[in-house]
Amino acid sequence: MSVAITVAPTGPIATKADNPHLPTTPEEIADAVEAGFRAGASVAHIHLRDEQQRPTADLAIGRKVMDLIAERCPILIQMSTGVGLTVPFDEREKLIDLAPQMATLNPCSMSFGQGEFLNPPAGVERMAAKMRDLGVKPELEIYDTGHLEACLRLRDKGLLPEPLQFSIVLGVQGGMAATADNLLTMVKRLPDGAIWQVIAIGRTNLELTAIALALGGNARAGLEDTLYLGKGQLAEGSTPLVERAVRLATELGHEIATVEQTYAALGLSR
Ligand code: KMH
Ligand code: ZN
Questions:
Q1: Which of 55, 139, 172, 235 holds its CA 20 to 30 A away from the CA of 104?
Q2: Does the C-beta of 106 come closer than 6 Å to ligand 1?
């Protein structure tokens, strides 16, 4: 079986003050993605930052990042529509107009640390319909069991193309805690034929990524999810985290999926 690895070089919260290797400019993000691709990633999960390193849904920045990545490598681009807690939903939704191959779909509102992550039901349906109509593959971000139920309702309304592709997000304050028990609970509830990976935030990133790989999941790796390689050891970019995921998968006897294999697994054509 082959394992698709997603590189997630930058998230919505950390800055260079937290890890100086965090890419924030379009060029830095594209360089980090290319390095991740060379290390084995076939998908790039992308958050945009403005010149002050703040999360943004600016379409010109989005276009530039996508173009720079496409110039460097053929990796599948997955635009985050989560963007950041300070960016309004309707701005986040417009990123779908850039027609990346994939984009995240966060199905429910929730507390997110000390902030609020707003995903109103009507907006989520609208975003899902727009993705379906433009052929943008949704990655469903589920932080709790109720989020999975919400996705299945969207599927039943004809808004989500099969196979469904999930990220089980563990460790966000407001969502499920990062435990093996919670991961297993979610995996057991996924519908037949679903593709999935774990997003394990923070300290448990390594253990839960390893468990997910052993259970047949894909893997995500990068500074969005953990700034550290080990206790007190800052990761010098996302590449060492991608390389670690490749090593784990390989030791478990899995092949690393090429970009072509990942397109096929997701039911996407080039
Ligand atoms: N940052 C993660 C907690 C998204 O970007 O839409 C979840 C995530 C969602 O990656
Ligand atoms: Zn993200």
A1: 235
A2: yes
212: domain CATH number is 3.20.20.70
The finding on whether 199 has its CB within 6 A of some atom of ligand 1 is yes
Identify whether 220 is part of a domain: yes
Question: 15 burial class (0-12, 13-18, 19+ CB within 10 angstroms)?
Answer: middle
> Helix, strand or coil for residue 255?
strand
Mean pLDDT of 131-151: 98
Q: For the chain, what is the domain count?
A: 1
How would residue 1 be classed by pLDDT, with cut points 50, 70 and 90? confident
State how far the Cα of 244 lies from the Cα of 238, in Å rounded to an integer: 10
Residue 270 lies in a domain: no
User: Domain range holding 129?
Assistant: 2-265
- Provide the whole-model pTM: 0.98
